[in-house]
Amino acid sequence: MRDLRGHQSAVTGTAVSMAAIALTAPLNYGFGLALAWLLPADEFGVVSVLLTVLLLATSILAAGFPWALARRVARDDDPASAAASFRAALLGNVGLGAVLAAGFAGVQLVTGAILPGAGPGLTLLVAVTIVLLALGQVLVGGLQGTRRFTAVSAVRIAEVVVKVAVGLGVVALVGAGVLGVGWALLIGAVAAAGTGWWMFRDRLPRLRGAVAGWREFAAAAPMAVATTGFGLIGTLDVLLLGVLGQGHGVTVAAVGSYQAAAILAKAPFLVGSALSDVVFPFVARARGAAEAHGWVVTGMRWVPLALVPMLLVLAVTPDSFIGRLFPAEYADAAGPTRVIALGAVGLIVGDMLLKALFARGLARAAAVRIPAAAVAEVATMAVLVPGHGATGAAAGFAVGAWVGVGVLGAVYLRQHPVGALPVRRALAWSASVGVLAGLLALAAASGRGPDLVVIAVALLVYVVLAVVLGAVPAQDVARVRGFLDGRRVQRV
């Protein structure tokens, strides 16, 4: 491992990550939408659980060892030490992936409780995919720590493009159903791991050599625990809806309908996660709590400015999208979409807080407290799902997400100097969002047809007000104007 230092700034990293999201988010959306149209509702329900299982596995395997590696590489100038850290992360994460794969396979083959109707073939595909995800995430961790954001984005793009192409091909052309989706996910994981290896090949150490000691694993353990707890917040609603609703009218098809709501309402989380990924190495390298907090604010300020308006659209006007994007049998997804959107704001903020605590070496404090959020989610679902079905699951998700913000925020505030909120900027944002909410309510009442036009006008008015009233920082406005001016000059 020769030079472990990258050369991309936070601004460049954000731009690259946003570009990758601009490509992959529509593909992921389209994949979910296409499967909803191509598969019967009950099979789409099984696919929903399958995707959620792999999402949870990715959440577990993406932190812990990979994040410990990224943090170590971002701080360490010694190539030999970084190489030993890479070997430790590789050994630990692939080992963890093998344990998760074996656990999943054992439970599924014996009880069949995780994926309804899945046989040994699909079970084996999922188990192998989990191990490949573990390998790929270590490579992403190394790229992340060296601030090679373009390479990180390339890995994610490769996984999504291959998954979507293969998945739609085997389902639409061959009629392979759920098993075909399993193959697509496996091949996508192969593509991600292969791309990660190719992008990191000039910095890969030899596999034989010194391995970082138990301290490296000890640093990864609380990260893994905290990330597992946080990953559960975003997945327990889908995983437990069918279990808790059994005997209360919740079918596999109802789980598929809930997944349709989640596809819409949780999508902005991808943007928030990309922002926190970009900021992470800069927080890790910060020379003190004040500097670290400055970097956190750099990413966090876009939650109210950009992501809350996106989620407000889904919370107020879900019928405008559910009715157009999904078959008629998913019409009842509009109600859960509203509640999930409210919880998604908390999930985005919680993700940023969690990664900031990781970067600052406070993973242990997060690991101790984050399980409270998962417990709150399960308790809420246990009470509400039998009587309210999918809406009860959505409420459980929202409760878990915001409890997570509470427990993580308490740790963060004790460790970082947080200044007063700029009153003028907060009032400007509140006024802009208030106008947006009013216009969105008008869109919801206008009926199908003019509703999309009103939504577009509402968002445009919000952007103009946010800029004119000063909700958007002046330096960001100047940066955008400079970029646009540069584009005009290039065209001339």
TrEMBL record:
Keywords (A to Z) from UniProt: Cell membrane, Membrane, Transmembrane, Transmembrane helix
Q: Which residues cross the membrane?
A: 12-38, 44-69, 90-115, 121-143, 155-175, 181-200, 221-243, 263-283, 295-316, 336-354, 366-387, 393-414, 426-446, 452-472
Q: How does it sit in the membrane?
A: Multi-pass membrane protein
- Superkingdom, natural source: Bacteria
Protein localization:
Cell membrane
Task: Identify the InterPro entries for this entry.
Answer: Poly_Biosynth_Transport
Tell me what this protein is called: Oligosaccharide flippase family protein
Protein source organism:
Actinomycetospora endophytica
